[in-house]
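Section 3.1: Structural characterization of target chains.
Under the original work plan, the team committed to producing a structural model for every single-chain target entering the pipeline before any wet-lab resources were allocated. The record below documents one such target. The sequence was received from the expression subgroup and is listed exactly as submitted; it comprises 103 residues.
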Amino acid sequence: LTWLDKIDRRHAWLKRALVEYDEKYSRIFSVHWEMAERLTVEFCKITRRELANIMLKRKNEIDVKLLRFAIEKTVGFETIVEKRFHGNTFDHANNPITIIGAR
């Protein structure tokens, strides 16, 4: 399982998976199904759950520098995701986190 100092590896994995999807599978599925976005949403849900569990177990190992690194990498990743996708497949009703100022 990935710790916070390796968060960018998770993001890089998704980027590679999306390139592979685009090259190999995107023509198989209807564009209206928004499969790449659905894959990304599922990736984010899994990543959130796993990181929450790991952080709970390793809370004594979290310091400000590590947390800042992870947040900066995640914000960069979110910016890329936001530019690529429209958010049509994200179910806000099932999102347990309320984000202040979110669209």
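Residues 4-88 form one domain.
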